[in-house]
Structure formats: structure tokens, C-alpha cells
Fold:
Amino acid sequence: MKLTGKTVFITGASSGIGEQTAYAFAAEGARLLLCARRKEKLDAVAAAALEKGAAAVHTFALDVRDQVAVAATIEALPKEWSSIDILVNNAGLSRGLDKLYQGSIEDWEEMIDTNVKGLLYVTRAVVPGMVARGSGHVVNLGSTAGELPYPGGAVYCATKAAEKSINDGLRQDVLGTPIRVTSIDPGMVETDFSLVRFRGDEERAAKVYQNITPLTPVDVADAIVWAVSRPAHVNIAHVLMTTIGQANSILFHRDPTATTGNTR
Structure:
């Protein structure tokens, strides 16, 4: 399926997987609708995306946790941006690595509000238009954490398990329409994910990627573009992807000779 001229809406597009997904779609000649909380960084991504071939770019600041803002902003999109062909629900984060019984309730709420409720709010605002137009593809960012929880990550893992259920439930709910629904579920990816999880502790974040070559945001972006560019009758339900040194969310092979690709 050609992506030239398609309108692609990416949440959390200011860095990491969202940023590289924007560039990957730009290279296909797509029109990019980009949002994130950090408008300054988002505008830099927009400028780079235009240089990489995007047909057009429209950016706006949005916190997906704010249901009223999500609904109002999408409702108020300029007419030329209102027909969204592809939605990439990328916005998400993790906080802390505490045992469940010692965890921060504030951290729990931030993860649930962003990874689950934010996903729902954006989906609810965008998918009715896809159904009405008889065309669209929703891509949700999951994780190996949604397949198997790991120590200290119970709530984050639960949000990604919820993403999996929402993804599969939506795919059932749009059955009989041309809408496609895909979950891209990566394992370890070197982004600011761990830096955010540990609230800027660079030394602790770096240890996550020690002696292993992780996936890069480019790898994940490539999988997203591949999934949405399949023929219209083909729906890729799930893509579970890891670096060769990772078997699942808790089992890794750490090789002292491995090098990381620093993407931060």
C-alpha cells in the first residue's frame, strides 16, 4: 500500500520511537500530524521531517492524559488535517522500578493515565472518523512487558497488558469495516525510556543497556511502516520484536563485547 499523501497522526512524537516513526513516514511522502507535550522539540522534529520528504507537517502540543483537551483538539483540527488515515498511539512512559507494595501511587497514576487512558482518549476521538470514511489503520505501541511482567514493573507491565487487550478488542469491534488494527510490541529499545523511568539518573539508565545491543527507535519505526504498508486486505495483528540478546521481558544475554547504539 502506498503511503504517499496519507495523513499520519503520531502521539508522543517529540523523541524516541515517535520521532523516528515520523521520519520513517516522511520518507514515504506522508503528511504528518504530530503531537507531544514538548512543543519546542516537536517543532524541531517537524522541520527535520520536512527535509526527509514529508508532504506536509502540522504540530500541536497535547497531553494525552487530558480527555477534554484530546477531544477538543482533534475536533478543532483544520479541515485539511481532519481525515486521519493512520493513527500511531505511541505516547507512553514508565516510572520507577519499586516493588509493588513500596511503589509510588503518583507514578502509578501517571503510567495508567498516559499508557491506558491516554490511549483510549485518542482512539475514541479518532476512530469514529475512520469508520465513517471507511478507511484507516490504528497502530498501538505495546511491549514485551505486556506479555510477561518483570520484578518491580507490575504497574507498567499491567498498562501494556491493557494495551494488548484494548488493541485486540478494538480489532474485534471494527470487524466488518475496512479499519485495520495493529500492536507493535518491542522489547528493549534504547531511547530516553529508562532516563524517564529513573527521573534523569543517567548512570542508572545506562546500566539497563549494559553489555547488550538493544533495538533502536529506527528498528521499531521500520516495523510500523511495514505493518501499515501491507495490502489493504492484510491485517498484522501483533509484531513482537526483540534484540537478538533478549528472549522475553526478563531473560537477557549480556555479552561484554556488545555495543549499544546511543540514540539519546
